[in-house]
Amino acid sequence: MPRPTQALVDLDAIRHNFSVISSLAPGSQVFAVVKADAYGHGMIPVARALSGLAPAFATACVDEALELRKAGLHEPVLLLQGFYESEELTEASVQGFWPVIENEQQLRLLTHTPLPKPLQVWIKIDSGMHRLGFAPSQAAAVFQTLQQTPNVHATPGWLTHFSNADASERSTTLRQIKLFDAHLNGLPGPRSLCNSPGLLQWPEAHADWVRPGFLLYGSSPLSPPASALGVDLRPAMTLISSVMSVRTVARGEHVGYGGRWQARRDSRIATVAVGYADGYPRHANDGTPVLIRGQRAPLAGRVSMDMITVDVTDIPDVGIGDPAILWGAGLDVSDVARHAGTIGYALLAAMPARPRRIYQSSRSL
Ligand SMILES: *Cc1c(COP(=O)(O)O)cnc(C)c1O
Questions:
Q1: Chain centroid offset of residue 202 CA
Q2: Gyration radius (Cα) of the chain, Å
Q3: CA distance from start to end of the chain
Q4: CB 323 within 8 A of CB 192
Q5: Distance 30 CA to ligand 1 centre (A)
Q6: Which of 160, 253, 307, 361 has the CA that lies 20 to 30 A from 78?
Q7: Ligand 1 center to 162 CA (angstroms)
Q8: What is the pLDDT of residues 289-337, one digit of tens each?
Q9: 4 Cβ inside 6 Å of ligand 1
Q10: Cβ neighbours of residue 108 under 8 Å, at least 6 residues apart?
Q11: How far is 290 from 296, CA to CA, in rounded Å?
């Protein structure tokens, strides 16, 4: 058998999650956010699975959007970071992408570059995140400027981004919504405010379009997780490997680099063929759960490049070849991330190509 480390990607789960999202925001259209290789799941298979369901996709940049076109996907693509230069703007016009514009330089390029076709643009407003966007007080002026160029369709879209939508503290998001609404009052065009946590926690801000990424892939951005809200998400990726070696380690012995873990009793240690070069977090602490033979067993010792060691003393009869699930079905990636001092987003988006993606789908693609 070859090295067993694989990322199983369940495309039915992604379609299911899309439907759950649609029913959570019944009055809104959905941008399926597939940037960063669809959060490590593989952009093209994911986009194909959602084609016909999602009215539009969202990517970070033109290059990602072009990959969708090359794969024969013809939906509109929202470019969350717009364009960096006039060549990209021209490409956006040719391909029918929907660039977000958020600064004066993009506005200048838009009014000064001769384009083959007028564009649908979205104007980003900085309602408090202070990362991208025009000041709310500039909204009307940006709108006026766009009215005077033949390069854009008459009605732009309007977009903003929340900084604290996952928090239990609600005043920051409330202030962002009010500021956005107040300065766009009277201006035409569709509105979009919510990423995944906003979608779950702020139904009053669903507006015309929602922009979920993380939720599509089936984990919750909230703590406690969305399952506590009765939201039935299915994890799309299961990172799986198997036990490659098993040994008994006497009480008092240490395991792995630096001997971080010490046996408090005579212990059984299973070595699993997955490491940080496979996307497993290097900073996972002792006790990070690993599913072996369907049971949770604690990580024991530092994560190596190609291997981890797991304390399976309490799971009878663990042997070579037993499957080990690192996250996914039965083990939430966000749970694993918490043990590594990070978030599920970062684990998924940083997935290297090394674990082969195995796609499962009941629909042919
Ligand atoms: C990435 C991104 C999203 C998706 O965020 P999730 O929390 O993954 O749903 C939405 N909007 C913008 C502007 C983004 O950059």
A1: 19
A2: 23
A3: 28
A4: no
A5: 12
A6: 361
A7: 10
A8: 999 999 999 999 999 999 999 999 999 999 999 999 999 999 999 999 9
A9: no
A10: none
A11: 5
